[in-house]
């Protein structure tokens, strides 16, 4: 598991295209940037509260996304209570550093995307 203060090891390090490809791979999955965005907007959230904020995600997929984001040092998972068992997810410094990227993605989408006309 990577901590958010150490660089991520990547196989393509040294290639000029590597930072773009690696960043896209890490946050370019369907739900990853959405979870990061919701934590940026709301601060720390429990599993169910986060699921409510991420409309359309299944519990299994959310668990997988959270595990992947934690493994790469973007979020922290903190046990809040044992009985009943409750955890809270929050962004690390590495996760918060994605704010300009996530905001740029949101803004670009607002400007260039629209719903199909038949909806």
TrEMBL record:
Coiled coil: none annotated. Pfam families: HxlR. One of its GO terms (molecular function) is DNA binding. Gene3D superfamilies: Winged helix-like DNA-binding domain superfamily/Winged helix DNA-binding domain. It comes from the Archaea. Keywords: DNA-binding, Plasmid, Transcription, Transcription regulation. Transmembrane segments: none annotated. Residues 18-117 form the HTH hxlR-type domain. PANTHER family: TRANSCRIPTIONAL REGULATOR, MARR FAMILY, TRANSCRIPTIONAL REGULATORY PROTEIN. This is Helix-turn-helix transcriptional regulator.
